[in-house]
Automatic annotation (TrEMBL):
Name of the molecule in the record: peptidyl-tRNA hydrolase
EC number: 3.1.1.29
Molecular-function GO term, any one: hydrolase activity
Pfam families on file: PTH2 (PF01981)
Keywords assigned: Hydrolase
Catalytic activity: an N-acyl-L-alpha-aminoacyl-tRNA + H2O = an N-acyl-L-amino acid + a tRNA + H(+)
Length: 236
């Protein structure tokens, strides 16, 4: 898995960090037990939903306990770091302040942003690399009436890298939506799908004006690579 994840978003670019200010990252931990790892697509969808749940949580806004850290993070680079845990590691992660989001089989816990060099002990020891995920069966076609996060068909990304990138895409869609559409998405439980785009459709998607993630190129892909297009029906 990859801990890169400093995107250059198209359409909704955050400010650059203030000189000398600490850089914040959003930690996500995916549960991967040896005997029963989650399917890749389920993990990607669950991590994207976890980012949205954190953004919409009352503790993340206004005078909430996580609000200042969320502002410090969102006002700079929206970096995300995905790590894996199993067994006792997962139980220790669950004991820390955060939110666990479940998919069909996947479990992802998202935590309030932390300084890049200031991870809590229970998370700092978790592995970033070493495990990848597969889909036992090909995902069914996405529902065109629901949000879809389209992955670049020309890029090979580890599960961790792709989880962070789909999280970026979901966040850019959230930023781009009017308040009413945000509330409707939240109230519905943030339904979404993650699919790899058909190569024949990819250029159309990237030139459609939809929120698009371009990677900074720290790991796995070249700088400026377009990784995800966030296709929310309200933004078409």
């Amino acid at each position: 898995m990859s801990q890169d994840q400093d995107p250059t978003p198209v359409n909704t670019a955050p400010a650059r960090p203030t000189a000398g200010a600490p850089e914040y990252v959003l930690p996500l931990v995916v549960r991967i037990e040896r005997a029963a790892p989650p399917p890749r697509t389920d993990a990607l969808q669950t991590s994207a939903r976890a980012v949205l749940v954190m953004l919409a949580d009352e503790r993340s806004v206004g005078d909430g306990e996580w609000a200042q850290a969320m502002r410090d993070w969102q006002d700079a680079r929206i970096r995300k770091v995905v790590r894996r845990a199993r067994g006792a590691e997962w139980r220790r992660a669950e004991a820390l302040p955060g939110i666990t989001v479940t998919g069909k089989a996947a479990e992802v816990r998202v935590f309030p942003p932390v300084p890049l060099d200031g991870w809590p002990k229970g998370l700092a020891r978790l592995q970033v690399s070493g495990t990848d995920l597969d889909d036992p069966e090909a995902p069914v076609d996405a529902d065109p009436s629901a949000p879809v996060l389209w992955l670049n068909p020309d890029l090979e990304m580890s599960a961790g890298k792709a989880m962070a990138q789909t999280g970026h895409g979901a966040q850019l869609a959230w930023w781009a939506l009017p308040a009413g559409e945000r509330a409707a998405w939240r109230d519905a439980g943030f339904p979404l799908a993650v699919r790899t785009a058909d190569p024949a459709d990819w250029r159309r998607l990237t030139t459609s004006g939809l929120p698009t993630v371009r990677d900074a190129g720290f790991t796995e892909v070249a700088p400026g690579s377009c990784t995800v297009v966030a296709d929310h029906p309200a933004l078409r």
